[in-house]
Amino acid sequence: MSQPTHYQTIETTGTAGFEDRGSRFIGYAFPVKSVADFKKLITDIKKEHAKATHHCFAYRIGLEGNEYRASDDGEPSGSAGRPILGQIDSKGLTDILVIVVRYYGVTMLGIPGLINAYKTTASLTLQVTPAVRKAVEKNYTLQFDYTKMNEVMTILKRFGCTIHSQEMQLFCSFEVGVAVESQQDFYKQMKEIQGLTLDVLR
User: In CATH, what number is assigned to the domain containing residue 81?
Assistant: First the structure.
């Protein structure tokens, strides 16, 4: 099976609301790269909505989408987290967290009503949060003399590389992300710069 060259995710946050028989649902979508990102965001939302009845969520992380979790947070099993995750998957998204906060109304919704409410809130939230198609990248470290800066930057711009970190002194060190579909050409052109050291990170 060939490695994917692109994936769908979000780069901005989004929020939307839904009401049903007195219960109020508020959805939030966040871009995440790790479980640590998720833990911080769910903590922040729980603080912001401390009086809410439930803080249900689902996330999916990674190019293979193997890292995921769905939580009903006290709602009947399968009535909240799974519908939220279903909306994430229906759009083919990864590196994303969707949280749906519920303030309980005066009427019980029943399991079908809950499934519809959480699904609808997640769907509305994703509708207002633009999806983006991003290139799968391979990370490299570059080390070179400062006099080679213009040559290096020209190639980085040519290939649309992501600069993750940079240290510029007499001898410079960069960590960059390169689209996997263009890494061979990138590697070839960088190796033509005299004295530059190039190593793959992952």
Answer: 3.30.230.30
